[in-house]
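Could you please review the protein record set out just below?
***
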Amino acid sequence: MDYTLPEKLNLREEFAPSSYDAWRQVAEADLKGIPFEKKLITQTVEGINLQPIYTSEDLNKIGSLDSMPGFFNFLRGASPSGSSVNSWLIAQSLTTPLAEDYNKLLLDALTRGQNAVVLPLDLTTRLGLDADYGKIGETGKDGVSISGTNSLSRALEGVDLTACPFFVNAGFSPLPFFSLLIGYLKKEAVPVSKLTGAVYGDPVGFLFKNGKMPVSIDEAFEQIKKTTNFIEKNNSSLRTIGIGGFEFVDKGASAVQELGISMSIAVESIMRLSKLGMSYEDIAKRMIFNFGTSTNLFMEIAKYRAARILFAEVLKQMDIQSDTAEMYCSAKTSNYYHSTVDPYVNMLRVTTQGFSAVIGGVQMIETLPFNSLGSGGDEFSERIARNTQIILNEESHLNHVIDAAGGSFYIETLTNDVANTAWSYFQEIESAGGAYNALITGKIQNDINKVVEKRVKDTATRKSVIVGVNSYANIKENMEPQPGINLEEVYQKRAEWLQKLRIAGNGEIHSSILVELENVKNAKEDAEQVNLASELAIKGATIGELFSHLRNASGSEEVEIITTTRPAEQFEKLRERAFKEKSLKGALPKIYLFNIGPVKQYKARADFARGFFEAGGCEVIYSEGVSTIETGLNTALATGAKVFVICSTDETYPDLVPHFVEQIKKENPANLCILAGYPKDQVEIYRKNGIDDFIFVGANLISVISSIFDKSGVIK
């Protein structure tokens, strides 16, 4: 046989291209009567239908694909050079309550690849309160406790804020913290004009997350306006207006909901601040979008690309020059998609989340530690999270390609679908009066809850897979509780420190501060007010004292708060129950697979049953196949199991089930008999025979195993 290759190899002739119609005919024939739409088209929680295959014909249906990076509609990136000249910023929140501890972590991180400073503030600080005026559980929660320039100095000691961008989410308003920051900068002789990054307020996102805000929405935007005017007057590029899509994703919102809500918040911010005298252009260029990132790789890539299209369209509709207001977009991985069981798998989830944000073209990324759900992270997990980005950059070379997703039939089409669907949802929110009104009336919460219910159900039925949680579970894992942060101890420590400071301080200076605070309140110009507040911060005024005099009026806001369940949480509770049983009785709940017939007869269902019950924390005894009930009965009963699963075929069950149930329950009426499969026409008969439950593709694992645990006496 001659194996010599021809001089010219024409693959197009050797493998003639086929049309979509020809492919579909073959696919439908293979489906053997099952509807194509039911089997091969997947509907996402965003309401988008994913096709099984995409072709160049799909691109012909999309307009504006010929846009260039850095030009309207910014589909291909906000910058002409993408990440190839200025790569994305590698940032970590480093959430620890005490300023001195944060400083140690930050200095270490900056020497190991982090190139942006993110200072996360605890809830008390973001509420504009001193640490000892906050509540136990709020002081030190989710960030660093900062009450004055002294604690700010401890947090930033040895850090050159002019050497890398600086980011602070100050809560509903940037003004109180910003006054401390300006005081600190004056002490350090650092002009605010030298800082880059953002110190911003996000009243709508703050209200959604916390359910309460100590000022009215009007007051919050008034304070954002004052901060922004000071920034403008001092020639600083700092961004002050936050659009926090992350807060919604972290509660389970879909990509479409996040984009629609974010665009509505952007419009609301522009309209409210323009009424306070700011120009549209000045407002738009001070915005920073903070998006959350899910584990749905392609959806997230499409989301970030669609976000730029949507924001460009918003600016166009408002007659704002889009080239004067580049969309600054940061991404943060969300714990909503993580789990406390088999936590090392969270590393893979973080990698997927970070990868999608890079390919989507964001300017900054925060990657959470794999164990941040349990302990808030530690030195090892923080390093792994940071190194994930470094590897994506320096070893995967993702910064070398501009718009890596460009030209993909699937991603280009998905980007278009996401943009159109999100625009429709944005219009829906606008029709409801805008993001703030939609939050007050509960529309946003209700819409997100519907998506969350679907996510939880799809995970419980294993339609959606979470590796290590509802599939490929590691029952050998030793579930030890992770030590969290003792917030009561943090509160006591911070309160004691502040009280000593007040007692030890100079009484005359403190009295003068109280008098001069009235001057802050009565200042006529925004820049003057911030300057006066910063001077008092240098003298020792705390954030609580400044906030009480920076606000113009009393008032507050309150909305319904979402208490969502992470999809993995229901499995975590089952596993905790199973491991509690093990700690008290010496063994996990046992499930015995009673396999009958040759291997090919029982294996598929036995394998399914093993994965099903291990996901619930059970010890599965996978027996060898037996030919009759009698030959396997003694072995099964000797294991001490209380739950027995018969695994065979629908054809053999009518003869096997009655005898199986009789023998198992003859030994102990409390024993449970489970059928692997769900033959619809025989279900009621089998129930009458004594079958307690059925496991099958689509069964609600949480419901089934919870019921089995209850009936078999597993400790709650």
